[in-house]
Amino acid sequence: MTASIVPTATQEQYPKRGEVWLINTNPISPGDPHLPRPVIVISPNNRNRAWDSVIVVPLSTGLGNINVKFHKEIPKGEGGIAKMSYARCDLVSTIEKNCLDTKGALGLRLSDKYLWELVRGVRASIGDNPDL
Q1: Nearest to 90 by CA among 48, 127, 44
Q2: How far apart are CA 38 and CA 99, in angstroms?
Q3: Which of 124, 75, 132, 82 has the alpha carbon at shortest distance from 106?
Q4: Does 78 reside within a domain?
Q5: Does any domain span residue 92?
Q6: Has residue 88 got a pLDDT over 90?
Q7: Sign of torsion over alpha carbons 111, 86, 120, 17
């Protein structure tokens, strides 16, 4: 008789696409006054599960110059965020998972409507036409 391997809870706890997490540390900019900062995970789940890093879009509650192509409004409550925020699709980053808050995602994943807007914003920020 062979035993099946069942993943433990910790093996299945990884950031999922569309979830909002807090970044607690920034190895590129130690002492960053904007931490903790919420970010939205945009990398695919198979990558998130297997790699030590995730691809994210940061959120900001205050932007001086809003560019609707790159800065996507995310309403309060969506993904568990406490205030209306803007996803900075022009600031896509890859971060190590150990920079994320160990408490996990702030809430449920973003709705498909907002996740699709993020994809469009990222594509626009690299000069791709997301409407093709």
Answers
A1: 127
A2: 12
A3: 82
A4: yes
A5: yes
A6: yes
A7: negative
Query: Closest Cα to residue 43, out of 128, 101, 102, 109?
Result: 109
CA distances from 29 to 25, 26, 52, 54, 84 (A): 8, 5, 19, 18, 25
Which residue range forms the structural domain that includes residue 76?
16-125
Cα(11)–Cα(22) distance, integer angstroms: 20
pLDDT digits (tens, 9 = 90+) for 52-65: 999 999 999 987 78
Cα 57–Cα 62–Cα 66 angle in degrees, nearest 5: 75
What CATH code is carried by the domain that includes residue 92?
2.30.30.110
Q: Are 106 and 24 in contact (CB under 8 A)?
A: no
- Find residue 23's DSSP bridge partners: 37, 100
Residue that has been written with the tokens 């469009």 in this structure = 120
